[in-house]
Amino acid sequence: MSLDLRELYQEVILDHNKRPRNHGRIEGAARTAEGHNPLCGDNVRVYISTEDGKMTDVRFEGSGCAISTASASLMTEAVKGKSFEEAEAIFKEFQQMVTTTGEAVPHPDLGDLEVFAGVREYPVRIKCATLPWHTFRAALQGEEEAVSTE
Amino acid sequence: MSLDLRELYQEVILDHNKRPRNHGRIEGAARTAEGHNPLCGDNVRVYISTEDGKMTDVRFEGSGCAISTASASLMTEAVKGKSFEEAEAIFKEFQQMVTTTGEAVPHPDLGDLEVFAGVREYPVRIKCATLPWHTFRAALQGEEEAVSTE
Amino acid sequence: MTLTVKAPNFEVLRADFPILETVVRGKQLAYLDNAATSQKPQLVIDALDRYWRAQNANVHRGVHYLSQIATSEFDAARVKVQTLLNAASSKEVIFTRGCSESINLVATCLTSGASAKATNGQKTTPCIAEGDEILISTMEHHSNIVPWQMAAERVGATLKVIPISDAGEIDLEAYAGLLSEKTKLVGIVHVSNSLGTVNPIKQMVEMAHAVGALVLVDGAQAGPHLSIDVQDLDADFYTLSCHKIYAPTGVGVLYGKRALLEAMPPYQGGGDMIRTVSFERTTYAELPAKYEAGTPNVAGVIGLGAAIDYLAHLGRWYVGPEKPDMTDREALVVAFGAIHRREAELANEASRLLLEIPGVQINGSAPDKAGIVSFTLDCAHPHDIGTILDSDGIAIRAGHHCCMPLMNRLGVPATARASFAFYNTMNEAERLASGVRKIKEMFS
Amino acid sequence: MTLTVKAPNFEVLRADFPILETVVRGKQLAYLDNAATSQKPQLVIDALDRYWRAQNANVHRGVHYLSQIATSEFDAARVKVQTLLNAASSKEVIFTRGCSESINLVATCLTSGASAKATNGQKTTPCIAEGDEILISTMEHHSNIVPWQMAAERVGATLKVIPISDAGEIDLEAYAGLLSEKTKLVGIVHVSNSLGTVNPIKQMVEMAHAVGALVLVDGAQAGPHLSIDVQDLDADFYTLSCHKIYAPTGVGVLYGKRALLEAMPPYQGGGDMIRTVSFERTTYAELPAKYEAGTPNVAGVIGLGAAIDYLAHLGRWYVGPEKPDMTDREALVVAFGAIHRREAELANEASRLLLEIPGVQINGSAPDKAGIVSFTLDCAHPHDIGTILDSDGIAIRAGHHCCMPLMNRLGVPATARASFAFYNTMNEAERLASGVRKIKEMFS
Ligand SMILES: Cc1ncc(COP(=O)(O)O)c(C=O)c1O
Ligand SMILES: Cc1ncc(COP(=O)(O)O)c(C=O)c1O
Ligand code: FES
Ligand code: FES
Fold first, then answer.
1. Can you give the pTM of this predicted structure?
2. What ipTM was assigned to the predicted interfaces of this complex?
3. Whole-number Å distance between alpha carbons of D313 and D87
């Protein structure tokens, strides 16, 4: 297998794909939204519980590839306990990391999320990584309709 | 001007184009039909008077190129006084002459109509030469609708 | 036609397809995405190049040299398609933008009752109206579903669906039960792009005709792999996707029985499809021009002609010098016989090797299949399979293959699909399987 | 942008067009049929060749290498068209089969009220209904007449016709008089393919908008010759025939304002234009996919991208090394400014020389004309002129040019038409005139 590919499918990703964290629904969640990737037809639903402006619980459900599943799993871990603004800042940096071409730069603030740095070499898979995030933001903004990554 | 072209636009053709014979309508003609060349939009109408199974008068009207005008003019001369069967035989030979590719063979039976032999080198112009003939035959067969060369 | 010769080695034909030399991330390309689009032989590439350098002009009504060459090449291509399909007349061959447009044309013209008046004084116009039924199958491509949904909605007709078995075959009993005098049209795919199933078209047409229904056969996936005889099938409409038949993109074919095409109202309006235009009254041209509004894809159609030439060459090469006076039709029949066998060999071997891997499931197990192997792996999503195989130079497709209702029926969101052409090799089938085996290990 | 350089010699550009070397019946080809279709520069031919040899795959949703290359080249071409037209978004650029299909798409979607329900929950759908009026002009091409006739008939709307002056210009007073609140759509050609007239689109759009009508501009003949700015024109729809813009056959463009394209119902159904399909309910994709059912003409669109690159190169070449950092849009504006001037020069000279021949009449004498010279000769039919010029290697078109109502207005059954591109020469204009002079002698 090529080196590139090892960059994409890092152990952390394979692990979160196999055993996704925070997988499942939150009954009566404060906020929820569904996201859809038109390129493949996959869906993800994100649930958020809040208390005092902090997200006390974030979970997801849906069908997707390893990249989107691991991204959802790692996202829920990253944003749990954070405020909306903090989550937004993480999203911004994450998105920048996976969409910026050119020389790779380190993103230490992203913690485990940095494993998705390799996605930028796979343009058609970028939406896999960002789908959970777009859905998460839609839930925060209380959008009713399913969002799509386009 | 190329030799080929002189073959197409023979003096006889240019002459019949400039001064078409039997041009005009026959009021109360026994038979008439209109023909249409979809490639250029030109039209011709043929009128036939008959007596005792012979065509006593054949005339034409319409707008067309030099080839179709001369063909109509020479056709009316060729079929006047003939029976339907005789006209049909002339048509058959004429059509064969203008559509057969390969080595040219003489068509002495066609008389003046032989000047159209050059048309076979110009596939898009063959319909110009045959339009009057198709219209003539439609008139003989009493077809109501305008015929087209297609 | 029976063959007396030993089958020649198909691998020598690879040299005719320059793109097969491509190296992807250091590995030789194994192009197993032929159901999406086929690669083009040098003969087609050369025909296109020659066209742009020495023949390009608008066709029809042009009196000048280039226009005459372009027109005669264009018209010749129509006759070649007639031969390919064994149509009764080249006037029954309509060039469209693609298979999808061909189907839309029929769906629209059969439901545009209002415009029917405008046709050249036709008395009876075939028409689907309120209360009528349209039958399609569960395994249709979106291109043979959505146009009928839109048409049904337009006129208030009902769309009904022929179920399929677990093996991916049409349930003929259910089909018989669904057919009734209300059925005005059956839309059925000849070869499924997701399952590879070859449907029993001739029988299905017969059954439909018995209740007076018309049949449109979506031949997008049959065109590249089977020898088609529309007269024998007695199909009313047959559609082709030419970029899948080794020809350029941007060309489709609609075959329709002459009487039907003559009776139907026109589709798009514009240049070339008219006889006379005035603001008071417009009359339409005869077939095939009636359905070809505007400048056609001249180069694409000429490229299609070259692709058919290539297939006829292939037939002659396959037979060898024994039958020097084969007709083009005979050569094409031989070619597709050989292609179908070769592709089945490749696909069967790929299936066999894949099934040795625990967790692999193959979708579609009809006995007569075209060279399509659709599969899933328990631990990896089809797109992950696609990406990882790509890094080994193996090109497959992952997704719903424009067959969402079928995916629903199969109970999967998507599949991975390897689709073979005659220029593929056993080695490529092996590379596919060993790639999938590695993924299995990686994801378990 | 003002040019400070002396105009470079356009004749050197001939070397970019290999077909111009053609020898016809012993004479060098003089290709004066550019309004029918343009010739292709080497850059475009090479892009196509490269595509078939190294990039060919189906676009969208493919995870493999070739599919990614094809998709990114395809998407890049859409952005190039956006630049060509100065559209606000590349989502407003829809690829079709040709200009005729683009117009049919709009005419159909604006009159398919019934299907409007099917769109993604849109509230207001622009729609032409019974009693409404559609305005077109006397100088329209059949492709901008027949679709509206069919649409008007479908819904019971009325088609009205804007008259033209003897010089071949829109009668703006009559236009003002025809516009009313009943007018829902104005269909107007930007540059007449028979007369060469450049219509005052911006003003006409303003007048139409004042009564709430939409405007579709048929840009088939403007695309190759003028720099177009759809935002400045404020056109609601703008259509291109790409084979006339030095690009391959089988590609057209429909530009539409985003809000309109989003509100209109879909046109053809099939693969790629959907979001989800089920037998109960289908939802449609976002722009531009919504209007691009089925596999697009991938190679053709990529060739179009190369043609636009060529035009931008031409602009840079014209300016010379002085402005190294011109944007593509700026380069295109320069290119078309230069092309328009060059073609007008050629056409003016041809007109001048032709008018010296007794019996020649030129149709269309608007002051601002594109490089089109439509003429008749008193003693010879246009097709005879065409055939005889062809024997001298001069390619022109003869006929009604898909403008029968205009021919009626001019009182001629047909005309001979010489149409110039920037790669034509003064010598070719002279050869045209001396050929016509010989015909005059021969036929008198
Ligand atoms: C003014 C005008 N409109 C429309 C068209 C139709 O374009 P196409 O044949 O490419 O569909 C043409 C070209 O033939 C044209 O000149
Ligand atoms: C079975 C089937 N039908 C229809 C189509 C549509 O063909 P096209 O995309 O060429 O219009 C395809 C190909 O994608 C297909 O596989
Ligand atoms: S492939 Fe569907 S989300 Fe990744
Ligand atoms: S060109 Fe019209 S009949 Fe000859």
1. 0.95
2. 0.94
3. 20
